[in-house]
Amino acid sequence: MDIGLIGLGKMGGNMRTRLREGGHTVVGYDRNPDLSDVESLEELVGKLPSPKVVWVMVPAGDPTRETIKALGELLGEGDLVVDGGNSKWTDDQINADLLAQKGVGFVDCGVSGGVWGLKNGYALMCGGSDEDVAKVQPAFDTLKPEGESGFVHAGKKVGAGHFSKMVHNGIEYAIMQSYAEGWELLEKVDLVDNVTDVFDSWREGTVIRSWLLDLLVEALKQDTHLDKISGYAEDSGEGRWTVEAAIDNAVPMNVIAASLFARFVSRQDESPAMKAIAAMRNQFGGHAVRTQPPAGGDAPTKD
């Protein structure tokens, strides 16, 4: 099939390559002229036969909204836009309604696979009508991993794909937090001789084996105690959206919520909340508190 692809960064660029290797004709546009096949959105649209299919892979929020708005002025009846970025699912119906005014279809698609997607394929979760999904199905079939799994038409309502991907990322937060806490405990206790080998052994035969575990082992082999990495973890936004959706729907989400808040802790040089807890423990139980260490010495305690 012929397809336009907007946004040729780490994900989009590799997707263009995988699609071309699968026999599709791809016209790519990026604001970086070194990556782009064309000079403008107008040129991209002009090179596509009708009905035109354009896949958007730009940052969520305003960049995606502005790109879809611009495409709404360029596309026409029977054409289709796919939003494959990490957009919030509540944006999808707004974008679909905007495009529908011109008779342009809309499919939202959560994409997972990162920089490994070119080789291994991308997990795809899409939302939209059967008719609209069918228009881009050949691209889905090429982008997905080999085998029966890896692609799902999550729902006929737009937003179903991004909502599924959002929950996927919330689960990802929790799994990573569990591995991280286990690693810290193994490192802390002077008992295990080689923590990396322990994690490596879990990759076969255990109930906690996963691709995330494979990636952690690879990182530990490169830097055994992770001395070269700062203890700061960013969040992309989808963990927050998952917890917000849980609150809106009264769904208990203890573990995913805790893993999100743990990332916030990583951004504090010193936790103000922990200071307050230490002070209260000292007040009600006389428990020792730590003060700032003097130059060249250990931190003293204060009863």
Automatic annotation (TrEMBL):
Any one biological process term the GO annotation gives: pentose-phosphate shunt
6-phosphogluconate dehydrogenase C-terminal domain sequence ranges: 161-299
Protein known as: 6-phosphogluconate dehydrogenase
GO MF terms, alphabetically ordered: NADP binding; phosphogluconate dehydrogenase (decarboxylating) activity
Enzyme class: oxidoreductase
Extent of the signal sequence: none
InterPro entries membership: 6-PGluconate_DH-like_C_sf, 6DGDH_YqeC, 6PGD_dom2, 6PGDH_C, 6PGDH_NADP-bd, 6PGdom_BS, NAD(P)-bd_dom_sf, Pgluconate_DH
Keywords (A to Z) from UniProt: Gluconate utilization, Oxidoreductase
Domain of life, source organism: Bacteria
Gene3D superfamilies attached to this UniProt entry: N-(1-d-carboxylethyl)-l-norvaline Dehydrogenase, domain 2 (1.10.1040.10), NAD(P)-binding Rossmann-like Domain (3.40.50.720)
